[in-house]
Amino acid sequence: MASLWQTTMVRGGIEEGGAVMKVVVVGAGFAGLMAAWRLEEAGHEVVVLEARDRVGGRVWSYEIEPGNPQTRIERGAEFVLSGYDLMESVMKRFGLVLAPMGMSYYVREPRGVDTTHEAVAAAAGVVSMAAATAPHDSSLAELLDELDRSGAADSDALAAFRSRLEVTNACSAERLSAAAAADVALAFESKPSYRVAGGNQRVATELSSRLDGGVRLGEVVRGISWDEQRCRVVTDSGEVEADVVVLATPMAVTRELEFDPPLPPWKLDAWGRAGVGHAAKLHIPFVQNAPPADWSAVQNVPERFWTWTATDESGGVQPMVHCFSGSGPALERLQVEAGARTWAGRVASMRDDLPLDLERAVVTTWADEPFSREAYTAVTVETGKDDDELLRRPVGPLHFAGEHTAGDWAGLMEGALRSGARAADEVLVRP
């Protein structure tokens, strides 16, 4: 590759007199930081540009009462689940540990319909088998309606299943591809769930603290000029030149960047087909000096949200209820754009077993956050069969990371980390 910085330093596997690439990573979420760390470990010069005033992207640990860990919430990604092998290996490297949550992400008590978790799990098995052979462009709603008419599964259990998948995928069943339900039966088996002790965002802060070049916060990237030999990243404050760029911003943001020359049609078309999921989180502290509660997981089937109470690193149940809702119609009904009041009131009606302080409720949305514009990627009826490969495929010196490029791991912290590692590996084998 032309225009490389030369060095006589032996570092991270670069041989003496070898070539050092200058790499700009756009985005300091899990994907961008993972890519940057691997590339620096290999001896290359890396600059990370982040639009926000913090690292972590859509992983954001926050204390409602600063200095009080009992009020710590995850305003973005929360659950560390089965199979998060890369995340656990990174945590081990940095001396981070997992805190068990008591409740299980996979098991929820359905309310609002006459069914049980066991019945919903059985329905999930039926749907999963049918989804495996459904046409790729058929919707989840069509598949569920067909199964309901045929009597293949209990109607209330199917309703609860539909509610849960809409919430989880942050997209309505009418737009979700039936493929989103393939292999989903595994998601209803009881398995433990965890958070990172001290907050999930610690993974990002640990990664960023190990970068020699650090992270330049408040750098809003507007566009990229590129050819096969050089890139120029344009920000609100100036320009940064590089040999290679790793784009690790959310899909909804990435496709609004200006590229000179424009990217090839196959890439732009895949971006255009990528589904954008919308979700919100709500956290409601308990009233002061409330008695301890038990851990729990309860799903409001009709209103498309679920709630949980969970243990933290102290071993006790945090005096807080956490809530998640997904899909545009659900968020509209909960009036999340107007704040926490409507949603908090509905939680209080459903969870009258909890001593909630509604005045301290905190709601977090991502669609209106300028550097996200979405919660995470959804597999919709417009998504093409080959889009996973197209989304991650490089274009010249431009490489692409982020949960939307993670295939089966899309939408997850593990997926973001894996995508960053994969993008770094691509850069390292460039000619």
- Overall average residue pLDDT: 94
Q: Please state the oligomeric state of the protein chains shown.
A: single chain
What's the N-to-C terminus distance?
A: 6 Å
Q: What's the number of extended β-strand segments?
A: 23
Alpha-carbon Rg, integer:
22 Å
Main beta sheet strand tally, sense and closure? 6 strands, mixed
> Could you estimate the helical fraction of the residues in percent?
25-40%
How is this structure best described in words?
- This protein has about 425 residues and is α/β, with parallel strands linked by helices.
- The protein is about 30% helix and about 20% strand.
- The N and C termini lie close together (about 5 Å).
- Residues about 1-10 have low confidence and may be disordered.
- Strands 8-18-19-20-17-21 form a 6-stranded mixed sheet.
- The longest helix has 16 residues, at about 415-430.
- The chain has helices at about 30-40, 85-95, 115-130, 140-150, 155-170, 200-210, 250-255, 265-275, 330-335, 340-350, 385-390, 415-430; strands spanning about 5, 20, 20-25, 45-50, 60-65, 70-75, 100, 110, 195, 215, 220-225, 230-235, 240, 245, 260, 275, 280-285, 295-300, 305-310, 320-325, 360-365, 375-380, 400.
